[in-house]
Each structure stands twice: as structure tokens, then as C-alpha cells.
């Protein structure tokens, strides 16, 4: 019995020593990682401080930090991005599917505010705004160095209010002013088409609060109105 007790005691002590060694090893790894992170953060702070002290123009610290965060998130993959509070607020408006505006999708192409596409049956669409049009001024003010958020704020607004955009298109030699009256823009999340009475096409144009419900309705609409093919083996 005494020998068995000694063996059990020795085994317990061996396990305790192993746990201690593993713990120390993990602590050393975490510690090394922490040192690397703190070193990088220190470098970031030093660069930020140098820019604030030495850059030729006055710098907004918040803008700099948000730009750094955006760059960090973008480095993960092409689909990740950092959303500022203003961007998130605009996203919430878009996901509701309706807002006051002129009805265009915009982007920054080579730092120029550019129309991606007009939304059907909106003031921009009716006025003939086309994909690829460059918006160089909004209400007479240049869009040079404008951000997407700033542009959205200028273009959106209450129904029946006016906004003038100045565009350049293709081989135009002079800019063209177009005055638009804002309306309530209804963005269709799900679009449906039928072909030959037995083929249904559904496209999700954008994700909104009601996308799931609209998709169910679209599927139901197509399946209920579908004409069965003779000899197809499918029933309505």
C-alpha cells in the first residue's frame, strides 16, 4: 500500500509540474504577443504625433484615426470595411427602402463623383442621368475631394425640394446643369421577371428590412402563375 501511495503521489506531482510548465509556456507566448502589439501601437502613436506636429496643414485627429482603422479593416479582405457613425446612419436609411432624394447610385471613381446607375422611375432617371456621368458640382459647389457621405447628404433631402447637379459625360466639351426635384425614392429589393410562361427569374437588387418577405412573395407569385409544361412531369 505504501508503494502504491508513493506512486500516486509521484504521478500527481508530475501532473502539477506539467500544468505549471504549460502555463508558463502559454504565458510567455501571450507576453511575447502583447509586446509585439504594444510595440506596433507605440509606432502608430509616434507617427500620429509626427503628422500632427509636422504636417503642412492642420489635421483632424478623428479623421486620421478613422482612416487608419479603415485601412486596417480593408487589409483583411475586399469585402470588409469600417463604418463611421454617419455611414451606419445612411445604411439604416437605405435598408428601409425609401428616402427623399433624386434616385441615383453613386461612387468615387478615380476620386471623381460618378453615377453608377439611375434608379428606374425616379427624378434622375426621368431627367436622363446615365451610368458613368461625372458629377462635378452640386448646387454650384465643386465635388473635388468630396466624400460619398458628403455627396449623399447634399443630394438627399425632403420631397419637392430642388437640387442642381453639374455633369460631364463622354465627349461633352462643356458641363451641363440639371435641376432635379427630390421625391420619395422607393428602392425595390426584389425584382421579378417571367419568360415563356414557365421560367421565372428573381433578382435581389439590394438587401433591406423586407427582403426576405419580398422574396417569399416573388416565389409565390411565380409558382402560382406558372403554366405547367405539357409532358414535363411537373404539376402546378
In summary, what is this structure?
This protein is α+β, with helices and mostly antiparallel strands and 236 residues long.
Please tell me about this protein's structure.
The chain is an alpha+beta fold. 44% of the residues lie in helices and 22% in strands. The chain contains 6 helices and 10 strands, in the order αααβββαββαβββββα. The strands form 4 sheets. A 4-stranded antiparallel beta sheet has the order 5-4-6-7, with helices on one face. Strands 1-8 form a two-stranded antiparallel sheet. The termini are far apart. Residues 2-18 and 229-236 have low confidence and may be disordered.
List the helices and strands and how they pair.
Blueprint: H1 2-54, H2 61-74, H3 85-95, E1 98-101, E2 104-109, E3 112-118, H4 123-126, E4 134-138, E5 141-142, H5 148-155, E6 162-168, E7 176-181, E8 183-186, E9 190-195, E10 199-204, H6 211-225
Antiparallel strand pairs: 1-8, 2-3, 4-5, 4-6, 6-7, 9-10
Arithmetic mean pLDDT: 79
Q: SSE order in H/E notation?
A: HHHEEEHEEHEEEEEH
Number of strand elements = 10
Beta-strand residue fraction: 15-25%
In DSSP terms, counting alpha (H) and pi (I) runs of 4 or more, how many helices?
Answer: 6
Specify Rg, calculated over alpha carbons. 30 Å
Terminal CA distance: 81 Å
Major β-sheet, in short? 4 strands, antiparallel
Estimated structural class: alpha+beta
Low-confidence stretches: 2-18, 229-236
Amino acid at each position: 500500500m505504501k508503494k502504491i501511495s508513493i506512486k500516486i503521489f509521484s504521478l500527481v506531482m508530475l501532473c502539477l509540474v506539467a500544468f505549471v510548465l504549460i502555463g508558463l509556456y502559454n504565458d510567455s507566448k501571450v507576453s511575447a504577443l502583447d509586446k509585439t502589439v504594444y510595440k506596433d501601437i507605440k509606432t502608430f502613436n509616434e507617427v500620429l504625433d509626427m503628422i500632427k506636429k509636422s504636417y503642412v496643414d492642420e489635421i483632424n485627429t478623428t479623421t486620421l484615426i478613422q482612416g487608419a482603422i479603415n485601412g486596417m479593416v480593408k487589409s483583411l479582405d475586399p469585402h470588409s470595411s469600417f463604418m463611421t457613425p454617419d455611414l451606419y446612419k445612411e445604411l439604416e436609411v437605405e435598408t428601409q427602402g425609401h428616402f427623399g432624394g433624386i434616385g441615383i447610385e453613386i461612387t468615387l471613381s478615380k476620386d471623381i463623383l460618378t453615377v453608377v446607375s439611375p434608379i428606374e422611375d425616379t427624378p434622375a432617371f426621368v431627367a436622363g442621368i446615365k451610368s458613368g456621368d461625372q458629377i462635378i458640382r452640386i448646387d454650384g459647389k465643386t465635388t473635388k475631394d468630396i466624400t460619398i457621405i458628403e455627396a449623399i447628404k447634399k443630394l438627399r433631402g425632403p420631397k419637392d425640394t430642388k437640387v442642381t447637379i453639374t455633369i460631364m459625360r463622354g465627349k461633352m466639351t462643356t458641363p451641363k446643369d440639371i435641376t432635379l426635384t427630390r421625391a420619395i425614392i422607393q428602392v425595390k429589393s426584389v425584382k421579378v421577371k417571367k419568360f415563356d410562361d414557365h421560367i421565372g427569374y428573381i433578382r435581389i437588387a439590394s438587401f433591406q428590412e423586407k427582403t426576405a418577405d419580398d422574396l417569399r412573395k416573388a416565389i409565390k407569385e411565380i409558382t402560382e402563375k406558372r403554366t405547367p409544361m405539357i409532358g414535363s412531369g411537373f404539376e402546378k
